[in-house]
Amino acid sequence: MNLTTLDHPLAAHLMAGLRDEATEPAVFRRLSRTLATLLVLEATKGIQTKRVAVQTPLASVEQSRLGQGLAVVPILRAGLGLLEAALDMFPDVAVGYVGLERDHESAVASSYYCKLPSLAGKLTLCCDPMLATGGSASQALTILKKNGATDLVMVCVVAAPEGVAVLQANHPDVPIIAAALDVCLNDHKYIVPGLGDYGDRLFGTL
Ligand code: PRP
Ligand code: URA
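A: This is the predicted complex of the input protein with PRP.
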């Protein structure tokens, strides 16, 4: 399976807070941002590096520096909850946005916005906290590939087996990083146990 889940007590602790229905949006946003730090670190493990000579006060040493550009593309709106951590860690990151919204009845996502930087040669993180049916993520990855992305990672908070299967079928070249792999989808295509509607909980639109 092309899926890596975080294996760290802090990630589990943060997930407990995000899942808790009593967690208010202000705390939800903070937990989301901290968890995103762990996710982005894992998702960028394979970024290309280059060897450079660095002069310390004592000696010259050969050291690795980042050797590949990074792009982060949150899927609006909930993906915004994962953006700030990437900006903090990688200030030179290029940022794009893909707006997708699921229809409440059919759960099929449709696109309403797209603004992307140049993606050629960059490690591109497509960020969407909830991988449910996989429809949104699959559409977004197709858009990113059409716009030149060749080195992609899908970054999620909670993945459902159904969504993972869809991405593996449609985008087998794209690794998935998630904080948790949950059990299934319910009849309304929400992830169980999940954490509810991420966008609503992040922005207080319950
Ligand atoms: C949610 C979530 C994902 C999508 C996942 O977005 O943020 O984008 O659903 O579901 P899928 O895997 O079945 O496509 P939503 O459409 O609710 O929009 P929002 O982020 O604006 O709340
Ligand atoms: N979108 C969400 O925000 N939550 C789910 O469980 C499924 C889709």
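The chain has a mean pLDDT of 97. The CA atoms of residues 78 and 199 lie 4 Å apart.
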